[in-house]
Amino acid sequence: LDIGIGLGRTTGHFAPLVREYVGIDYSPSMVRVARENFAGFGESLAIQPGDVRQMPEFETGTFDLVLFSFNGIDYIKHEERLQALQEIKRVAKPGGLFVFSTHNIQYVDRLFSIKFNKRLKHNLYQIYRYARLLFENGFPYKYKQLNQAILVDGVNHFKLTTYYIKPAAQLEQLANSGFINIRMFSLKTGLEIDPAGLNELTADSWIYYLCEIPG
Known about the structure:
By secondary structure, the protein is of the alpha/beta class. Helices cover about 30% and strands about 25% of the residues. The protein has seven helices and nine strands. The chain has helices at about 10-15, 30-35, 80-90, 110, 120-135, 155-160, 165-175; strands at about 1-5, 20-25, 45-50, 65-70, 90-105, 150, 160-165, 180-185, 205-210. Strands 1, 2, 3, 4, 5, 6, 7, 8 and 9 form a nine-stranded mixed sheet that branches.
């Protein structure tokens, strides 16, 4: 099960490798275009509307692997996020896997950094971006002690809010939702992250999590 596929950014990578691929997206227009993009894959591929918070169309224990890529889980409310985790666990098979990424609140200081170069237009935008981040969110130090927060971080021209969470808090959230054998991987290096250094994870804007559904 591939959740939040948009126009099918991950479909072409995964669909040829599995016995059965189901891609869902909340947006009917995205589903329509994704179906057009992958019309030649045959019966092993299905693309349909779906809402991760409630998926009654799928029976309990259906999927070997559930993927929610590109921080899609960060664009629903906190309570709905917890609901989505429960629903994902329900539709996955015992012993199956759940893979997703989520924004790292310990990166927020770097989010507010200004990166100048020799191009005037770029530098002017960097100043605008910094001012807009301050206007929308306040100073970054206020997020240092929070487990999670909602930020306006510039996505879609500052029109969307994004959920950020501490890695330690995300591990706890997953464990409380019933997932086991949780592993973490760096966005920058792709390497597995040692849980002993969670509080020092400031270089990755988001982190990948690999979880197992208990048998």
